[in-house]
Structures are given as structure tokens and as C-alpha cells.
Amino acid sequence: MLESKIKSIIQQGEGLQAEFKECKFSLSKNIFETVCAFLNRSGGKLLLGVDDKGKILGIQPESIQNIKNNFIVLMNNPKKICPPFYLSIDELVINRKAILYIYIPESSQVHRCNNRIFDRNGDGDFDITDNQHLVSALYLKKQTSYSESKIYPYAEMSDLRQDIIALARKMASFQREDHAWGTMNDLELLKSACLYENDYETGKSGITLAGILLFGKESTILSVLPHFKTDAILRRDNADRYDDRDDIRTNLIESYDRLLHFGEKHLNDPFYLEGDQRISLRNLILREVVSNLLIHREFTNPFPAKFIIDHENFYTENSNRPHHSGNIDPITFSPCPKNPAIARVFREIGRADELGSGVRNLFKFCKEYCGNDPRLVDGDIFKFVLPLIPSFTEQVTGQVTEQVTEQDRRTANIIDFCQTSRSTSEILAFLGLAHREHFRSEILNPLLEQGLLQPTIPDKPRSSKQKYYSNPRVA
Predict the structure, then answer these.
(1) Most confidently modeled of 15-19, 253-257, 390-394?
(2) Pick the residue with more confidence: 269 or 256?
(3) Looking at the structure, do residues 258 and 385 belong to the same domain, yes or no?
(4) Domain end: 198, 226, 254, which one?
(5) Is 180 inside any structural domain?
(6) Average pLDDT for residues 107-120, to the nearest whole number?
(7) Per the domain annotation, does 462 fall within a domain?
(8) 135 and 170 share a domain?
(9) Contacts (Cβ under 8 Å, ≥6 apart) of 215
(10) Which of 62, 204, 376, 463 is deepest in the core (most CB within 10 A)?
(11) 249 shares a domain with 151
């Protein structure tokens, strides 16, 4: 899929959001000016190993790793890009030639390259540092567009949850072993993710709203946003009130787990094969819906986000700063980032894909799931609505015995992972989960009761040094 996407980008040529660099043996000298311009304007796609006319020249195999390493190091060097911004690199081969693809989202901050400010116009990068009007307009654009970038200079690292930061670091490392976050301390990670910033108007520095929402303690989040919550509701038998509810006021990473669990609990997961492999349409839909609900929200608006399942529909609502108006057409839809810093963290930990792909996936998966297209309405309140046929509104009570369930597959993965003794944090990161108590009660304890996992310190089940292994044990 990535190869076809790259070919399409090359066919369309360079433009406002696409740039090609030859980089046959090393990084081009002006490559970071392009990155800076993309970050400042509206994001873009950078292809290395392709000339400006779209001819694939390829990168010399012996130079690929050095180019990748240099790019990552310099992107995290404030003397080169300030504030630093971590970007991932995809390597692929087209027509037997190696190229590198770098997706650059629009940033909620104004960035400098070599202490100069670059902006994107047409297919070129322009130094606007000495144009006070253009620089002021760029800062104003960022401040008015992205409330996630608001700085809280009196928020301290102790106001964040170090365990959630550690979990994000592990999840990013599971996505890619050499992820730069793996060697960073907590503050360095926040700065790399643009969650700790400088306010060039006031001279103050601090954690941003995005950083607090992603990693903050519940008390910290509610102190800066007292109205913050996501309301998950099931209405079937009791339409006036609810049959089940989860009032979620925790950080966005744990919120993801709880919303996913609520959806898994109350939506059917029909048997579906893609080729000869069973996939969970329900979980694919939930992943897209939940990440969209959490990422693309205007958090300063007191309207509570809603995640509702009833007899006829599965739908969500959240406050929004619309870039369009009315129903979204997946063919003509042009995505605009609402909270790019939050979205980027979700992408790095494997809980979201590149901007725009979610809409296409939703239309594909929903049609297969229940025969209906979803309806996505962009406005001051963003709405996702999926009409459900009756057989999809009730939880399955019986399963075909030959059917491999999602729980069976997860159990097999855990047992395989725990052939070497693993801590609770390691298993959580492996599964991409953050809600520790749900994991312990719904996943870990049943495996222990069935004897599928064994504790390394059986006489101290709550020991901080406790690990778990499967039989046969491989220490």
C-alpha cells in the first residue's frame, strides 16, 4: 500500500505538500529548510532518492543507514531545527531502487532552521525571517489554530504521570527498536514531541496543554480543563438513561484503552476473513473512531465528548474547529490537522495512522462490518454515525467453537511473549494498553487462574519486582 501511495505522490509531482531530494550518497544541504517550511505551513511529504522531475534515482545501499541516522540526530538538534521535532522514516524499494519517505505533519509551533524561519509557497521554501509581517502572521496562525500549544509555565514534571510517559516510550520502541524516545529522559521526550515549548512573546517556557492531556495526572488535567471528560454510554433497554456508562476523565492514553474496552464489551465482532486471515472489523473500526474522538477535539470547548451505542446506531460527538461544513466525502476529503502534537504522539505509539487514512479506512471497514456507510459530519460539533442492523446491536452469546476469537489470539501472543519473564509494564507496552487495573482484572488474573502464566515471586503477588512467565519457562 505504501508503494502505491509513493508512486501516486511522484506522479503528481512537487508542490505545496510534496518535495523530492536526490540524496544519493548523503543528505541534501537544504533538506532541513524544506522540513522547517512543511512544519510551519501545512505539512508535507518528503521523498529522498528522487530528483525534482520525479525520476527515481535511488539511494546507494551503503549510504541508507547513515542518511537515516544523520537525519534523526539533526532533527533533534535545536541548533538545526528549533524547537526539535522527531520524524520517522520509511524505507522502501521501487523499481529495484531504494528510497526514503518522510511524512511531515503540520506543527502547532513555529520552527526555525539554522535560526531562520522558512515558509512554504507553491513548490518552494522561502526564508521569511526578516519579513516582520509574514513572521507575525505565521505566529498568529499557530496561536489561533491550535489551543493544544498553550503553555502552562507553572506546570511541573511532577504534575505528569511518569508511568504513562514510560509506557509511551516503550510503545514507541515496540513500533521501532531504534526509536529516538528510547534513549531520552522524560523532559527530552516532551521537548522532542513539542509538548514542552518556549513562548517567544512572554519568554516563558513550560508544558503545553497537549502534554498535560497526554500525560497529566487527573487532578492536573481537571485543574486546567475542569469540563474535560469523555462520556461512554450504552442505551438499549433503558433509552431514557443508560444500561452501562463509563465517565472518563483521565489522560488521553488511558482514555483510549477504556473507550476501546467499552466498545469491545458492547459491539458484536462478526467472523470476517481477509484472504485466509481472520481480522476483527469491530476493533479496526473502534481504533479509528476512538483515536479520532481523542485526537481531533477542540479541548477548550466545554461540550463533553460522547461515545454512544444504542439500538440503531453507534455514534460519537465532539467539539470541533471545522475546516469544512457538512458531510465528509472520503473521495474529495482533504484532511486538516486539529491537534498535530497529540496526533503525532498517537502515531508514534501505534494508535493512529497518517492523517487522512482513517476516513478511508472507516468507509471500507464499516461497509464490511454491517453493510452501511458511516456518516461523518464536520461542523462546530463533529459527528460520526454508523447505523447498525439489529443483529449487530446485541453482544454475541455463543461462538462457533472453531472460530479463533480476539481473546484467543491475544492470549497466544502473551504466552509467546512471556516465554521470557516479563513485568506488568512490559506486557502492557507489548499489548499497547495503559489501563493497569483493567489489564490486571480482565487479562492477567484469568491467565494466572488458568495456570497459563506463573508469577516469579508467588508468595508476594504485589511485589514491585514481580514478573510473569509461561511454561516452559525460558529465563
Answers:
(1) 253-257
(2) 256
(3) yes
(4) 226
(5) yes
(6) 90
(7) yes
(8) no
(9) 160, 161, 164, 165, 168, 190, 195, 251, 253
(10) 376
(11) no
Give the span between the Cα atoms of 262 and 240, in whole angstroms: 20
Locate 82 and state its grid cell: 528549533
In a domain, 400, yes or no: no
Q: Residue 242: give the domain boundaries.
A: 230-392
Confidence bin at 82 (pLDDT 50/70/90): confident
- With contact defined as beta carbons under 8 Å apart, do 143 and 149 qualify? yes
Average pLDDT, the chain: 86
Of the candidates 392, 419, 443, which is a domain's last residue? 392
| Count of domains forming the chain | 4
Q: Are 272 and 316 found together in one domain?
A: yes
Pair (218, 258) in one structural domain: no
**401 domain residue, yes or no:** no
The whole-angstrom separation of Cα 20 and Cα 10 is: 8
Give the CA count within 13 Å in the CB-facing half-sphere of 314.
26
Nearest CA to 125 among 21, 50, 34?
34
DSSP for 266-327, please give it. HS-----EETTEE--HHHHHHHHHHHHHHHS--TTS-PPEEEEE-SSEEEEEEE---SS-EE
Tell me if 363 sits within 8 A of 374, measured CB to CB: yes
What is the number of alpha carbons within 13 Å of residue 415 lying toward its C-beta? 15
Helices 406-417 and 424-431 cross at an angle (nearest 10°) of: 130
How many angstroms separate the CA atoms of 2 and 11, rounded? 14
